[in-house]
Amino acid sequence: MKLFDRLMTIRKARPGAAFLVLLDPDQETADDLARRAEICCREGADALLVGGSLLMTGSLDERIRVVKQAVDCPVILFPGGAYQLSAEADGILFMSLISGRNPQYLIGEQVLAAPRVHQMRMDTVPVAYMLVASESMTSVEFISQTRPLPRNKPDLAVAHALAAQYLGMRMCYLEAGSGSKQCVPATLVSAVRQAVGLSLIVGGGIQTTLEAKELVRAGADFIVIGNALEKDGRREFVAELARAVHGEDGPL
Ligand code: 1GP
Q1: Phi, psi at residue 63, to the nearest 5°?
Q2: Ligand 1 centre from 107 Cα, in Å?
Q3: Could you give the C-alpha distances from 43 to 69, 71, 114, in angstroms and in order?
Q4: Is CATH 3.40.50.300 correct for 3-246?
Q5: I need a labelling partner for 238 at 20 to 30 A (CA). Which of 88, 163, 212, 227 fits?
């Protein structure tokens, strides 16, 4: 089954939203990464994203290979640039940073990556990536050299999401930036939800079950959490977040 269809099947199986965990391949040794991946999936993560704005490790293939051996769920590339490719993954979020006006991240990196993606026969999901402002500058804002969308102007987010839909994107990623102090406002998610039929991925700065539930209630189809799960001893928290995102711990 194609990656997009797999993701939709996972989504439909959940009354709330699907739960994606972002693994930073730079954070740990390959074995630690595999162990964490295994715990996350056992406790309820539906799929794993691997990647980030900046990648230091030179062994992305190996890291993804060991993660794949440890879990049954899809392991998906979430690349910060054309250099973050691996045929070991189940596919790639092929993204364009449409909230920005930096041609390198709108189309440049994609052109550099495309021949290798083709050569590796990677499964691609076209995703409109939209960075939303938070209180301080995030790595993605700095690396991409783009201005994020204002938090208090949902109409701007809606206009971008509509453009993405007309361009034929399949998913829209509303991103506050990894490690952000504030997640994307629920009001903005709900405005985009009402305007477009695209599947909505929401991530960045989500730290509590309450925040996750609010974003699901606002219309997120996929919730992504990375940083909040990176500390040790977070097994129970993963399970708690999974139940909240899936809508299994009471009415949303
Ligand atoms: C980043 O949305 C993801 O792209 C996850 O962010 O690490 O802040 O959870 P956090």
Answers
A1: -60, -40
A2: 23
A3: 17, 12, 35
A4: no
A5: 88
pLDDT of residue 183: 98
* CA of residue 178 to ligand 1 center, whole Å: 4
Comparing CA positions, the residue from 239, 146, 157 lying closest to residue 195 is: 157
For 121-144, the pLDDT digits (tens) are: 999 999 999 999 999 999 999 999
**What are the domain boundaries of the chain?**
3-246
The Å distance, Cα 182 to ligand 1 centre, comes to 11
DSSP state of 145: T
What letter represents residue 188's amino acid? L
Sign of the alpha-carbon torsion through 211, 158, 53, 26: positive
- Contact at 8 Å (CB) between 179 and 227? yes
CB of 224 closer than 6 angstroms to any ligand 1 atom = yes
As a whole number of angstroms, the distance between CA 167 and CA 232 comes to 42
Type of residue found at 146: T
Q: Say if residues 10 and 18 touch (Cβ distance below 8 Å).
A: yes
Q: Tell me the CA distances in angstroms from 93 to 52, 74, 195, 250, one per residue in order.
A: 12, 12, 22, 31
Planar angle of CA 149, 173, 227, nearest 5 degrees: 95
Tell whether pTM > 0.85: yes
